[in-house]
Amino acid sequence: MKLIFESYVADESVPVAEFVRNRKLVKYFNRETAAVIVAARRLLDQVELVPDTPFYYETGVMEFENLGLEAIAAGSVDAAGLFDQQRFVELGTKAVPPLTQFKALYNMPLSFVAIENALMGDSAVIYASARGLLDQALMAPGDGPVLLGSGKVYADGRVEAAFALPGREDILRQSRRSWEGEAIAMFRQWRNEEAHA
Fold it and tell me: Do the domain assignments include residue 113?
């Protein structure tokens, strides 16, 4: 199974501009998306995928980047402290710059990797579940490889991103293991096993 694992410490710049075709898109990236773009490109530079390759991505709990979500939440509640959809549209979403909204959406890493690599196959974003990522991959249409990815921003500012291109047998072999928690830990384990093989 082909595997790429990237890690960047808090103050380390992610070299994403070197890995995108359209550098104007970089302004939409948070640290997770930037690291994911780099990891995906490094993996996919080694292989050629057909456009309908299934692609599933798991994102972990974002622990570090403050993208203004508190301001959105504060602007979206009524006098009683309850969520108000009209206030969300009129005040909440306007509490942060429009580009920030792209950085806060869970599907942005998947979307930008798909755009960069012209992937149009079955896709899904899974939130904080290695098991969910593997289960989704097992249900993928077709018999070819599946593109799997994961990313995570930690409280200390570190970011990790990983991609693999497993075949059906690789997925079946992995799904027999008990994978709990976020997928980035599963990818880290795969990297360690690969290094010791």
Answer: yes
46 located within any domain = yes
In this prediction the pTM is: 0.84
Domain that holds residue 148: 2-65+105-195
- Specify the DSSP class assigned to residue 128: S
Give CA separation, 95 vs 91, 99, 100, 148, in Å: 6, 12, 10, 34
Give the chain's domain count. Answer: 1
Please list the pLDDT of the chain residue by residue as tens digits (197 residues): 899 999 999 989 999 999 998 888 888 888 999 999 999 999 999 798 999 999 999 997 765 566 667 788 888 999 999 999 999 888 888 887 777 666 667 788 999 999 999 999 999 999 999 999 999 999 999 999 999 999 999 989 899 999 999 999 999 988 888 889 999 999 999 999 998 87
